[in-house]
Amino acid sequence: MRSAFLLLLLSLTPLFAGPDTVVPEVEARTPNGVLYRYGERRVLVVSGSPMQRGLAHGRLLKAEIKSNIQAFLYDWGLGRRGKKREEFRAIWNSISTHIPAHYHAELAGLAEGSGLPLADLQLLHAIPSRFHCTGTAAMPEVTRDGKVYHTRSLDYSLDIGDTVRPQTNSLLLVTVPDEGVAHATVGWAGFLGCVTGLNVEGVSVGEMGSSSKDESYDGFPMIFLLREVLYRCKNLEEAKQLWTRTPRTCGYNFIFCDPGGITAVECNRSRIRFFGPGDEAENVAPHFAIRGVVRRCNHFVDKELAATQRDVYDPRKSQPSSWSGYDVQGGILKNDLGAIDASTMIELLRSYPPVHPCLHQAVMCPTDRSIWVSQAKDPAHDPLPGAQNQAFLRYDLPALVKGEPSPAQRAGPSEVDDGTIETGQVRGERAIEGVFAHEPKVFDWRLEYLRNLGDVSIHHLTYPSPGPSRFPINLTVHAEYYRPEGKGPFPAAVVLHISDGRFYVARLLAASLARRGVASLFIQLPYYGDRRPEVKVDPNEVALEDAVGVIKQAVHDIRRGAAWLRERPEVNSERVGLVGASLGSFAGQMAAGADGGFDRCAFLLGGGSLLAPLYSRARETRKVLAYLEGRGLTREKVEAAIGPLEPIRHVDGLKDTRILMINCDADPVVPPESTRTYWEALGKPEIHWYKGDHYAIKNHVIEVLSRVTGHFVGG
After folding, report:
1. 488 with 376, same domain?
2. CA-CA distance, 653 to 433, in Å (whole number)?
3. Claim to verify: residue 627 and residue 586 sit in the same structural domain
4. Alpha carbons 495 and 513: distance in angstroms, whole number
5. Upper half-sphere CA count for residue 502 (Cβ side, 13 Å)
6. Dihedrals phi, psi of 515, to nearest 5 degrees
7. Residue 99: exposure state from Cβ atoms within 10 A (0-12, 13-18, ≥19)
8. Concatenated DSSP letters for 395-415?
9. Three-class secondary structure of residue 604 per DSSP
10. Chain centroid to CA 408
11. Domain final residue pick, 357, 373, 402
12. What is the distance between the alpha carbons of residues 674 and 417, in angstroms, rounded to a whole number?
């Protein structure tokens, strides 16, 4: 969550579609509780005393609460995070004395209603204090309709849970207490705390982690203190007073709003600082205030708080990912002053790259007490599961509180697949000679619609790989086609991924290019993603010839993808290029060099030699090298097999290609000298060096994306 804004707003065209409506249906009732279903979304309204509300919640969602305990506590906290149950118990024992009795009663009711151990539910609510997203707000003076708007994005992992993901059990929980202010919180079944919420008095809250050295568990835990703001406060001033006088725990940023005001809150255990809209106190370089606006990411602006967080004050150097979000977010809001409304705030949230982990997003309007909510899906069943890719539904909080839920307006892409499938044949595959010799063949392809994200539609492409491969699953190429809106003809690019197998970088590149009008085809390389065999391969059965075969297969698969692009009616066949990063850069360099027909290429973190990374003895390649040496394969033998395939042997095929190179000057994986030798062999094309190791490029993502997209968009 500290990297909540690492890649926010890097996609270059915001997305928003006109509203539709979803009619609520009653799914179940119990005394003091009604569970509504809005299509795939759920809203639970509970009323009465704390015990009664907890009982209703537990009875109506017992199965969902059980699976969330399994996912958050056992699979994630005690499992993948490797924490001990005693650690969470110690945290709960420390914070519980500060939690008001009515929350303890609600937890007891939740346990009784669901039949689940109270101890597990307590530990579930201790987790947020152990593991520490983004927010903006705008005043009436800078909005189109004179209302206050408040955004919130919760950037939690989407793969919490080994079998069932918490987002499967996402929930808008509406609480109508017999004493206190009615309010709504965005969360999950069984979660009584708050990270995003709004009450009927028009007070809204949103949290962003901002770690500090001044932290303690001996205080009022954040998730219940935020809920207490909604439960007790009728205006912004009351919220500020409550936050100031209550013992706090850890470092956080918040945004609080009411119909007449907005504030950014920075705090740790000992210090708290409020920033109003356009506050001059925010003009501490490099930060900048914006009239009528506040925004925060995951670092402190206040210098005293910042000193408890980072050694170098300038976040461009000390927290570049958080700074990127603060800067770009501010730039967009500054450009929209006077025209901000719910749709522009949704556009801002949708500007997250499609693969960024966003568990939920919300736009709250304290003025009319409405809340737009988007919730993530399960990545096991959706290739683009983040909340930014789902529809936003607008809920009328006063109507829900009255028990008269109105239809929810929908904003964003339809959640229903339109069923479009195209099939065809590629006839224009070109023959090549040499070590990558390949005879052209007519091959079939299938293109299935996945998702429409406004001005970009995403489709799943499959076509046969010419191989070689001994695993049938690896003989079907899987790719994602990012098609810009319009008839074209568009320039196009093949996009190739890095070696981690999550495809985050490739999808970010493909989406960014498509939003600039470049049709992009992200290809899964052999043995990655949908092409990975379920059968484990015995390393002792893998010969050097197999590695050579995989390299050749990758080159053939990439060239076939390019051939498919060249025959698309919306693509300019003379403007098909290629971009790859790290592993994808090497594969792309070989494929483009062998093909000789790419208009332009961008190679990120690549070099001219496959052997250089292997024998650099970097940690990323040590296992492979140990395997080769363990089988008695000397460098000479490996070089004899791999050498003829290396990118530097195929630079002649790139003599008419416009090339962009981006590398790091202290890269232990791709030695800079290897890159410089390749650059010289290419004729010294445009190259940009960033300081640091192989991963330092992530600190310059905005600039790198701008360079890459500009390279393909330019004439």
Report:
1. no
2. 12
3. yes
4. 10
5. 12
6. -75, -10
7. buried
8. EEHHHHHTT-PPPEEEESS-S
9. strand
10. 26
11. 402
12. 46
- Bridge partners of 395, per DSSP, are 371
* Whether residue 53 is found in the same domain as residue 175: yes
Backbone angles phi, psi at 67, to 5 degrees: -70, -30
- Provide the token pair at 106: 């609600």
Cα separation, 187 vs 173, in Å, equals 7
- The per-residue pLDDT for 543 is 67
pTM of the model: 0.78
Question: For the chain, what percentages of helix, strand and coil (3-state, to nearest 5) are there?
Answer: 35, 25, 40
Q: Say yes or no: 356 and 479 in one domain.
A: no
In this structure, the answer to whether residues 368 and 439 fall within a common structural domain is: no
**Tell me: the pLDDT tens digits for 329-385?**
888 899 899 999 999 999 888 877 777 789 999 999 999 999 999 999 988 777 778
The pLDDT of 651-662, averaged and rounded, is 97
Neighbours of 485 (CB within 10 A): 15
Question: Is residue 663 packed enough to be buried (19+ CB in 10 Å), middle (13-18) or exposed (0-12)?
Answer: buried
| Buried b or exposed e, range 323-346, using 16+ CB within 10 angstroms | bbbbbbbbebbeebeeebbbbbbb
Is residue 107 domain-shared with residue 250, that is, in the same domain?
yes
Task: Report the number of distinct structural domains present in the chain.
Answer: 2
The pLDDT of residue 30: 97
CATH number for position 507: 3.40.50.1820
Q: Are residues 334 and 483 in the same domain?
A: no
Q: Which domain holds residue 621?
A: 421-713
Q: Of 374, 402, 430, which one is at a domain's C-terminal end?
A: 402
Based on the fold, state whether residues 374 and 439 are members of the same structural domain: no
Task: State how far the alpha carbon of 87 is from the alpha carbons of 78, 84, 506, 548, in Å.
Answer: 10, 5, 38, 50
Largest CA distance in the chain: 80
Band (pLDDT 50/70/90 cuts) for residue 634 is: confident
**Alpha carbon of 22 to those of 74, 153, 183: distances in Å?**
35, 23, 22
Which run of H or E residues covers position 223?
A: helix 222-232
Query: Order of strands, edge to edge, in the sheet holding 134-138?
Result: 20-22, 408-411, 392-396, 370-375, 360-365, 149-154, 134-138, 293-296
Q: How many residues make up the chain in this entry?
A: 715
What are the pLDDT digits (tens) for 210-269? Answer: 999 999 999 999 999 999 999 999 999 999 999 999 999 999 999 999 999 999 999 999
Provide the β-strand partners of residue 578.
Answer: 494, 601
Please check whether residue 11 lies inside any domain of the structure: no
Residue 175, beta-bridge partner list: 46, 183
